[in-house]
Design goal:
This protein is mainly α and 125 residues long. It contains 5 helices and no strands. The longest helix is centred in the first third of the chain and has 20 residues.
Length: 125
């Protein structure tokens, strides 16, 4: 995937996610599948040639989504609320692009500082 395709596919993915969340109430909240259902739907060996992006996205709907519990559904009342938000999803994209793992101050100095700042917000009056 080159940068031009990445841009195009990224825009398509944002549209897919927006459509998914906008229409999530039309999906069954809880999967109606048996444990191990994926074994029958996924080949036992990896393909010799890569699938197209379009085929992968069809597989997401045909194979993956039937086995998903849709935590963002307005009809999902179990466990605890999902913590995703549109700003959070965009922040995840940026964080993934930067790819920095802040295990040491030398990796990303501001990462260490940012880790201390949010708690200070709550302590101030």
């Amino acid at each position: 995937m080159d940068i031009a395709e990445y841009r195009r596919r990224g825009k398509e993915m944002v549209d897919y996610v927006a459509d998914y969340l906008e229409n999530i109430e039309n999906r069954d909240v809880y999967p109606n599948v048996e444990p191990g259902y994926l074994r029958k739907l996924i080949p036992e060996v990896a393909p010799e040639e890569p699938e197209t992006y379009e085929e992968i996205m069809k597989d997401v709907e045909r194979i993956i989504m039937p086995g998903v519990t849709h935590w963002h559904s307005p009809y999902f009342y179990a466990y605890f609320p999902a913590a995703s938000s549109f700003p959070g999803m965009l922040a995840d994209m940026l964080s993934c692009a930067i790819g920095c793992i802040g295990f040491s101050w030398v990796c990303l100095v501001d990462e260490q500082m940012a880790g201390h700042s949010p708690s200070g917000f709550f302590g101030r009056q």
